[in-house]
Amino acid sequence: AKETGKNKTSYFKKRIAKRAYDFIEMDRALFQALKYKQFTLCYQPKIDSTTHKPIGSEALIRWYSPSKGFISPNDFIPHAEMNGDILAIEQWVIERAVAFQRKLRNMGSTGQPVSINISGKSLINEETPLVLERILAKYQVSPCEVEIEITETAVIKDMEKAVKHLMKLKKIGVKVALDDFGTGYSSLTQLKDLPIDIVKLDQSFLTNICEDQESEKIFKAVVGLCHELGLQVVAEGVETIEQLSKAKEYECDIIQGYYFSMPLMQDAYVEYLKEEGFEGLNWGRK
Predict the structure, then answer these.
(1) Tens-digit pLDDT profile for residues 98-113
(2) Mind spelling out the 3-state secondary structure of the chain?
């Protein structure tokens, strides 16, 4: 028994040491990523549910480390939130996404908005609205060409504080989207208290409605209530014709997912728009 106890203690000590080592290694890797600009952005098209034409995009961060290879945002974003690097990372994302909007403008774009994700920490940071305003002015991009996405879970941690800071962003003129709705614990009635313009329904909604009728009824009710509140509805994670059909049947306004396109690197996204025959772009201009 004593030997078993010693083995367990040794095992847990090794696990703790491994976690500490991994934490320090991720700290170092993130420092290198910021210093040597190892991050990049992809853009996933957002599609009008009626015309099936792109009407905007979501900027998604990607990280390829020379030493570790591709590192998923699910791995490094939570770590960056813990050690504080998230503020610098998300300010970088805002700048690069807005700069790309300027590039599209120079090509003749009529202003398809780009969605930018920010964390709860960035939301309540007093510098975030100032940084956003400065970057918009720097690249001469209109606030109406930018949407800020904040997750449901980040908002419900402190509704009062979240509303206060969301109002600051709204005053700039950007639209605000509530992302991953359905994954947290907020109620439908709380939607009316949030200064938001768009609700993005989590992929799990569509997955479930293709499997059982009760989930389908909930989906219909959620979309209907959002519309009653004057909110646009985005169906996320649409991957099959069945999911697309359900999203269209219940009048989701915007579709996003692999059915239409995976996230694309900047040049590939430009080519995608070109292939889609997006009107208003002069591809010969620089």
Answers:
(1) 999 999 989 887 778 9
(2) CHHHHHHHHHHHHHHHHHHHHHHHHHHHHHHHHHHCCCEEEEEEEEEECCCCCEEEEEEEEEEEECCCEEECHHHHHHHHHHHCCHHHHHHHHHHHHHHHHHHHHHCCCCCCCEEEECCHHHHHCCHHHHHHHHHHHHHCCCHHHEEEEEEHHHHHCCHHHHHHHHHHHHHHCCEEEEEEECCCCCCHHHHHHCCCCEEEECHHHHHHHCCCHHHHHHHHHHHHHHHHCCCEEEECCCCCHHHHHHHHHCCCCEECCCCCCCCEEHHHHHHHHHHCCCCCCCCCCC
